[in-house]
Design goal:
heterodimer, A: mainly alpha, 0% strand, elongated, B: 165 residues, mainly alpha, Rna Polymerase Sigma Factor, Chain: A
Chain lengths: 167, 165
């Protein structure tokens, strides 16, 4: 330690002007208030949460029952045209009257042409125009035109507004 | 913190804390008292209560000094006729001279000297208190001592002639 340090250290600071007793009293009072605040912290939080739970329970108990709304929804199924059956008389090879052929090659050509026609008939529907007599039930069923939503509404309104006759 | 511990801290550090606070404000007693009360209110007591007190006093004194304002500061300076040091002393230095020279010092070295010499804080604690490193705190302290040595006319140990054996 140097001399200047020793000399400075030998200088004693002026005595404190703090009122020691008053400071101790204030410290005790503040420490007590801090303890009291801490003591009330958790009970007050618990009381607040309990009040919240009670309020929620009361709200749930007084809540009106859920209202059931019934609606009739009409879903129209799209009508798919059914494929028409094939008239075997037109496409199948005629076994009773086979086509005439001079050679086996001609015969095969005729047979294959017939089978080709038959197969084409299976795949190309536009080549076949079913007749009424052959396939009476094969036509796509013509449904009566569905009533539009507007018509249904009008009918419903008319029914609703109908006061009815005398009883 | 129990009352015995608090009473011991007051006895040991109150005067040094007041001296430390006088660098910034005139109401050093109020600042120190508030700092002790804050210490009592801490939920967990600090590891080093003395260092904590110096820090609290420093912050409060700087704030008080700003709040007091220029006029109020002059009034308190005029009212403060007691001086920083006790008149009766074993020191070779004159207390009034030492006070005036300390007042003339730059704030950094003065704070470092006050915290280390009369506060008893280590340079690490002084550095933390001032927001600088411990080596910077030591440099400030050494610079302050050198200035005081020159101004107060204290002989430097390195310049002292060696004794002939």
């Amino acid at each position: 330690m140097t001399e200047i340090e020793a000399a400075l250290l030998a200088l004693a600071p002026s005595p404190s002007r703090l009122n020691r007793d008053r400071l101790m009293f204030e410290a005790g009072a503040r420490s007590r208030s801090a303890v009291l605040r801490r003591r009330w912290l958790w009970p007050s939080i618990a009381a607040g949460l309990a009040a919240l739970v009670l309020g929620e329970s009361a709200m749930l108990a007084r809540r009106p029952a859920p209202q059931v709304i019934e609606r009739v929804v009409v879903v129209r199924e799209p009508v798919e045209p059914t494929p028409s059956p094939i008239r075997p008389a037109e496409t199948a090879p005629d076994e009773a009257h086979p086509p005439k052929a001079d050679s086996i090659d001609d015969l095969l050509a005729v047979r294959w042409t017939t089978v080709g026609d038959y197969r084409r008939g299976m795949t190309h529907e536009d080549e076949f125009v079913p007749t009424q007599a052959d396939a009476p039930d094969s036509r796509p069923r013509q449904q009566p035109p569905a009533a539009s939503v507007g018509e249904l509404r009008r009918a419903g309104f008319a029914k609703l507004l109908n006061p009815g006759g005398r009883s | 913190m129990d009352p015995v511990q608090l009473g011991r801290l007051i006895d040991q550090h109150a005067s040094a804390l007041e001296l430390y606070a006088r660098q910034w404000c005139g109401s050093a007693e109020d600042v120190v008292q508030e700092s002790f009360l804050k210490l009592v209110q801490q939920a967990r007591p600090p590891d080093n209560p003395a260092a904590w007190l110096f820090r609290a006093v420093r912050n409060a004194a700087i704030n008080a000094g700003i709040a007091e304002g220029r006029r109020r500061r002059h009034e308190s300076d005029a009212a403060e006729a007691r001086g920083w040091f006790q008149a009766e002393t074993r020191s070779p230095l004159d207390p009034a001279d030492a006070e005036s020279e300390l007042r003339r010092l730059d704030p950094g070295p003065r704070e470092a000297i006050g915290a280390h010499v009369w506060g008893g804080l280590t340079f690490d604690q002084v550095g933390k208190l001032m927001g600088i490193s411990s080596s910077q705190a030591h440099r400030l302290y050494a610079a302050g001592l050198s200035t005081l040595r020159e101004r107060l006319g204290v002989s430097c140990p390195s310049n002292r002639p060696k004794e002939q054996s």
